[in-house]
Structure formats: C-alpha cells, structure tokens
Design brief:
Layout lengths: L1 E16 L1 E6 L9 E11 L5 E4 L5 E7 L3 E14 L13 H11 L16 H10 L9 H15 L1 E2 L10 H7 L1 E2 L1 H14 L4 E8 L15 E8 L3 E6 L4 E2 L4 E7 L8 E6 L4 E11 L15 H8 L8 E3 L4
Parallel strand pairs: 7-8
Antiparallel strand pairs: 1-6, 1-15, 2-5, 2-14, 3-6, 4-5, 9-10, 9-13, 10-11, 11-12, 14-16
Helix pairs in contact: 3-5
C-alpha cells in the first residue's frame, strides 16, 4: 500500500531568537517490507539541509538558521510503500526460549537488552508485571507471552492525550493508568527486556482507516515496540491499539527509547518563550500530496503564547509522540 505522509511542525517564539540548530528524524526507513520512494524536507526560514545515517540506520537531517527569526516551520512530504507481512504463527513452539538465548549469545543485542533512559525497571513496573501475570517466562511460549503483554497494557492503561509530558517517567502513567503511545511503548519495552528479550522503540506514523478501532489520534506521530524472536526476527507490537504492527505502521526511526528518536530536537539562542504546533496526515495515495493550507496556524497560538513564561537562553525543543 502506498501512503503519502505530510508532517508539519511549526515553532513560534514570543520574540526573535538569534539562532536555531535542529535535527529532524522524519524520513521513513527503506528495509524489509517498507520502501521510501520520495522524501522532501522544506524549512522556513530557508536553510541548507545536511543529512547522515546513524549506527542504527536512521536517516537524520540537520540544519542551522544563524539569523534572527520569530518562527521556524518544517514540512516533510513522503511517499512510502508498505507491503503486508507474513502471518505470524500462534506460538513459536517447543524450545523457543533456548533458541532465543542462543540467538542472543551469537549476536550483540546489548543496547536493546539493558535499561535505558525512559525504559527501565522500577517497583511500580514490577508490581504491574505481577498484576498482568507476565513478569517471568514461566514456561509460556515467548510469542504468546508478548501477545498477552500487548493486550494487558492496552486494557490496563487508558490512552489520554496530553496526560504526560515528553520527559515523563513510566511511573507517571503506571500510577494514573493513563498515558500516550510513548508511555505505553516505554512500559512494554521495559517489561520485555526484563524477560531477556531484545526490544526496541519504533517511531513513525500510523494510517487510521475508517474501519480501524484505533485509540491513538491520526494527527500525530506514533510509537510502538519491536521484539526479537527466533525464526521471526523483529516483530512489532502496538500496545496503544492492541494490534501487531502491520502494513498501516510506517517506520521512521528505531532506538533504545524515545530519547534516541525524537522527530525534532534542537537548541536555540535567545531569550524567548516558545510554542509548537504539529500536524500529521497519512493518506493512501500513489503520489505526494500537493502543498495546501490545511495545517495553517490557528487563533489558539496567540492565547497560548500569552500564558508562557520566558525560558532559559538555551533549551531543547522536543515533540512528544501521541
């Protein structure tokens, strides 16, 4: 299936800043069943854009705006094709745990097995694991256990937009039983790693069809989990929507957790408060969508800016994945 993706991001500042330096992770990966055919990144004020690939194969674009400016707009247009994956078996069968341990012993998956900044164990997480009954291998088939974990998180934690912050620890969502896809993904990663299964964070987009009962919204980026299983490789689980990752999931970047793959991250020089607006649109298509005004700013911006306090001279821009 071909998808046209438009990702619009705009930063507005209460007064002109002197410089912005930004990294962007918005270009879909080309691998396995996914191919990115076109990608175009537009920046205003205009800037020269450079790119590189990190050690995990993520494509990163970066730019520097050295002159004074009071807004920064980033628009990414993509045409990507995602083919259906092979159907998964109901279970892996006898000896799956031994095969998994052998696989881990043969390759270096250290970074996807160890705790990371947002995906780590805690007393709250251990209590949650016991509540769901997924805190130990206990002879269960690995694939069966991960399916139970995926649905257990979905049923136990409500999806509530803006219920947490971009830097919220998983304990916040565990205590309130509410979070966004970023939180549910971090919780599942920490639980899967506790089982000694390599697990990674996937940042990207999700196409919401008319017949899909998704909890996540269709105007934001999305996040889910990939776990390494013998004979299957990396398998995607989406605890926010209680589904396996499939042809509706468009992968842009992978990492240990969100800290490795924010869609935008950067710094600015100046003394101003800031506000950020993000809009995402994923449409079945065979061509890149033409520019339009659908994602124009609205009147809420002026009211929002009035409520902001001045920030430090240098600070980070980050975008939470809803």
């Amino acid at each position: 299936m071909f998808y046209a993706v438009r990702h619009f991001t705009q930063f507005r500042y209460s007064r002109a800043v002197r410089q912005s330096v930004m990294e962007v992770r918005m270009q879909p990966r080309s691998e396995n069943t996914q191919r990115c055919f076109t990608f175009q990144l537009s920046v205003s004020p205009r800037a020269r854009i450079f790119s590189y690939t990190d050690h995990l194969g993520n494509l990163i674009h970066h730019f520097d705006i050295p002159g004074a400016h009071q807004h920064l707009t980033i628009v990414a247009d993509t045409l990507v094709d995602v083919e259906p994956m092979l159907d998964l078996p109901d279970q892996l069968g006898e000896g799956a745990w031994d095969q998994l341990d052998q696989l881990i012993g043969e390759e270096d998956y250290w970074d996807m097995l160890m705790p990371s900044q947002f995906a780590r164990s805690s007393p709250e997480l251990e209590a949650f694991e016991k509540e769901l009954g997924v805190g130990a291998r206990d002879g269960k088939d690995p694939l069966v256990l991960l399916r139970e974990m995926n649905s257990g998180i979905y049923n136990a934690i409500s999806y509530v937009r803006e219920s947490t912050r971009v830097d919220s620890p998983i304990e916040d969502a565990l205590r309130t039983r509410a979070g966004v896809c970023q939180d549910l993904t971090h919780i599942m990663i920490a639980m899967v790693r506790n089982l000694r299964i390599p697990c990674r964070y996937v940042s990207g987009y999700l196409h919401h069809g008319a017949d899909d009962a998704d909890r996540s919204v269709d105007s934001a980026t999305h996040a889910w989990v990939e776990a390494l299983l013998p004979r299957l490789g990396w398998v995607g689980f989406d605890p926010t929507n209680n589904v396996l990752a499939g042809p509706r999931h468009i992968r842009t970047a992978i990492g240990r957790d969100y800290a490795d793959v924010p869609p935008t991250v950067g710094t600015l020089k100046g003394h101003a408060s800031s506000a950020m607006q993000v809009r995402v649109r994923v449409t079945p298509s065979e061509a890149v969508l033409p520019p339009d005004q659908e994602f124009a700013a609205d009147e809420e911006w002026s009211r929002f800016l009035e409520t902001r306090q001045d920030d430090d001279d240098w600070y980070a821009h980050q975008q939470q994945q809803q």
